[in-house]
Amino acid sequence: MNESRRSVLGALAGSAALLGGSGILPAAAAQAYPNRTVRLVVAWPPGSSTDTSARILAQKMGEALGQTFVVENRAGASGIIGAESVARSAPDGYTLLFNTSNQASNKLAFAKLPYDPITDFAPICRGYRNVLVLVAHPSLPARNFAEFLDYAKKSPGKLSFGSPGVGTPHQLAGELLKQVADIEIEHVPYKGGGPAAVDLISGQIPLAIASLVAVLPNIRSGQIRALAITEKARYAELPEVPTIAETFPGFDVSGWGGMFAPAGTPAPIVRTLNAEMARALRRGDVSQTMNGNGLVPWPSTPDELAQLVRDDIDRWTAVARSGVKFS
């Protein structure tokens, strides 16, 4: 090799080292990602809106990236068990988390978390906005929201409502409803929306605030009764069901789902995952499936998901200071 060629190759090698330090080369290296199975931890049980969405996205992302995305349900403690397992995993893009808005609200619901919801995760992409509904067992002598409010006021402390767990938007919606309507209803936390729905359908509990994805078939079959939507606007699939905001203006609570990686995951990998997840969410078949089950596709950038977590923490901190208890 002549001296001229050596000098050119040396310069290229030096440039490569410099580019690697600047974060440009890892993008090229990330083109090989993923080259093995990716594990997607869902912090909620099978049958929940989180699980349903994660499985749809895992299939589409796996097809696009040419690798299998395996969904692993690690439910319990309002999403903490699954989130902690991912926070402690290697930041290599092969262990991911699909979690709900509990990613933020758990910071208020629990005195101490085994991780920091902001600094211990690398946000990837929002998945959906989750439509919530107040539902009742048919044995409850209330055919609509107005009759429910009247019955609750005449029966203080005799009613209870189920939710997927402490700190979920479902529970927070119930606590806010108790506050604005001045009614007494006991909260019964479950390890996910599926178990809460089962107990509601069987009559073990009279009320629940549920994700539509978990109960829409049961509403349509008449097994349970929809009383009110917790978002500010009526849901197109159930146009006859009023919103709580129609009685109590300003009431607006919904949940969301999103994907996260452990903090320190290389930015090129995060960008790859974000691009494919956002692309999947914009597919017509995915959008149709989600909308039909009470979920609204809601893709975002990683920064937008990070901001959503921070905003939710701020919002529920203010709510807690007003006297609402997350327990």
From TrEMBL:
Residues annotated as signal peptide: 1-32
SUPFAM superfamilies hit by this protein: Periplasmic binding protein-like II
InterPro entries from the UniProt entry: BUG, Bug_dom1, TAT_signal
Superkingdom of this protein's organism: Bacteria
Keywords annotated in UniProt: Signal
UniProt xrefs under Pfam families: TctC (PF03401)
Protein family (similarity comment): Belongs to the UPF0065 (bug) family.
Name of this protein: Tripartite tricarboxylate transporter substrate binding protein
